[in-house]
Amino acid sequence: MSKTDKTKQKEEMKSLEILIIDDNEQITKMLTTFLELKDHKCTVANDGKEGLSLIKKSRHDVILLDLAMPEFDGYSVIKDLEENNALKNHKIIVFTASTITQEELDELVKRGVTSYILKPIDIDVLLSKLVETANQ
Amino acid sequence: MTLTETVEEGMFQTENPIHELNRMLVRYDLTPNQSKVYLFLSKIGIKTASEISKALKIPRTETYHLLSTLQQKGIIFSVFGKPTKFNAVGLDESLEILLNNERNRISELEAGKESLIKLWNIIPKYGEDDEESQDNKFQSLQGRNSILVKLEQMIKESKENILVLGTDADFKRFYFTEFTELLDKTKSELKILTDHKADMPNIFENIEAKKVKKIEDKSREDFCFIIKDDSEVIFFISNNKVKDMLAVWTDSKAFVTTLRSLFSLMWKKSHHLNETDAESLLGSEITYEHRLREIEQEKMILSYLQDNFKILEKGEKKK
Question: Which of B4, B138, B157, B284 has the most CB atoms around it within 10 Å of its CB?
Fold first, then answer.
């Protein structure tokens, strides 16, 4: 195994601090169980306001952010971080089931969101995306 | 007493629209007697001071004084002759003149505001600032105008959020004021919980629909309050009549937090005005298609977890 491959493998094995902001409690609970089985640490916020406060309070390797949430939604979280020039300081993956166009997704990335995942997604693909984003 | 005199006197003594007009004119900075004299001249036409005094049963000296004030205001004029007679400017024009007078008065007050504050700041302050700021302040507000002034100040100063709870009837008292316009313009997060129906004209019809929800709990209809930035609240105690409106403003943390919690609970339970029952069940901005994708995602994670637990269980059994 080459040195580069070893480093890559090490990175992949590293336990990640993941923040999940999603109002769907079924998804957050099951996702937490899954990610903890994979030795990652999860923090959950079931609304945008709580999520934003957690983002500001502590550091996370990657943030999974739902867009459609009642009251303070994912767009509001992005807007708040953007207004405080903090959006690019975080690795945010938009994780949404909303009907959203490719242009809108590209626009979010242009604004500073790291990437996006559309629900439903295979859970292994989701995990690789999380690891890949955290190691970017 | 002549027939004309009986009619003239009757105008102001029995229940008729003149009484309502009289009451309304008082709002244009006229005293009840000034308003009486003005309306009398408007309807009856040219009269001497003595005739006015007799018809309206106002002492002659006071009548002269009233006529002089009304002339200064520009809504009646004298006709030269002996004795001097008086007549009124038309109601339309008079209202415009009175409004202009009020506008000018406000402009003068505004112009004087700065020098008044400067003068005030010259006087040294005695007393403990800290003690005052830590106290829970309560202010009783009586009548629509004093409540409105405080409300407008709160909305203008708000930086974070404004939460409004009350029935449409509660807020109808603020028709034709800046109240809803300020709410509409605020940059703070705005949430309104009220009982009005989407298809009926209402005071909040210009506010973005997603900021307004229907009060579902009928027993809560007696509440009416407005919270600013989770730090100040105005709650209404009596709402019966505009004149008797009574409210209390406070920055008491205990009060604000309690009402804030009540609002949050009700907001969570309520749904938006145009929401259908299905949308309400699924969540306002979430479509059916969206919900299906979410369920699909749940299924995918669940099936992965079930498979893994099966493997784990099998492994344990083998051991």
Answer: B284
